[in-house]
Structures are given as structure tokens and as C-alpha cells.
Amino acid sequence: MARIVVAEVCPDCGSLDVRASEPRWFRVELDRRDDLDDGWVERLEFECRDCRLVWD
What angle do CA 4, 5, 8 make, to 5 degrees? Predict the structure, then answer.
């Protein structure tokens, strides 16, 4: 399966310095994630490192 990668841009300031996290993923111990789900991402949160805006 091919994965598509795109650059996320901050909707407020236009910065490309954006980080992404999957909030659910960080609630599970890293060693046990494969046991608990199939790896699909249901929701991502993005945060601009310049202006600190958070969106999903």
C-alpha cells in the first residue's frame, strides 16, 4: 500500500514548521501499541511551532 505524504501548513501564520501527533497513540505504552490496534490513525492533531496554534 502506498502512503501519501503532504506538508501541513499552519492555517493562521502559514508556517511549515508544524508537528503532528496522534493523541490516542501517546496514551498507550509504545511497546504495546501493536497488540492493541492495527496501526491506523483515526485522528491527528497539528501544532504550529511558530505561533502555537493547535488544530485537527
Answer: 135
The three three-digit cell numbers of residue 51, written as one number: 505561533
DSSP-based three-state secondary structure for 21? strand
Q: Which three cell numbers stand for residue 45?
A: 492533531
Task: For the full predicted model, state whether its pTM sits above 0.70.
Answer: no
Tens of pLDDT along 1-54?
677 777 789 999 999 999 887 766 555 566 666 666 666 667 778 999 999 999
Helix (H) or strand (E) holding 45: strand 45-48
Element (H, E) at 33: helix 33-36
3-class state of residue 17 by DSSP: coil
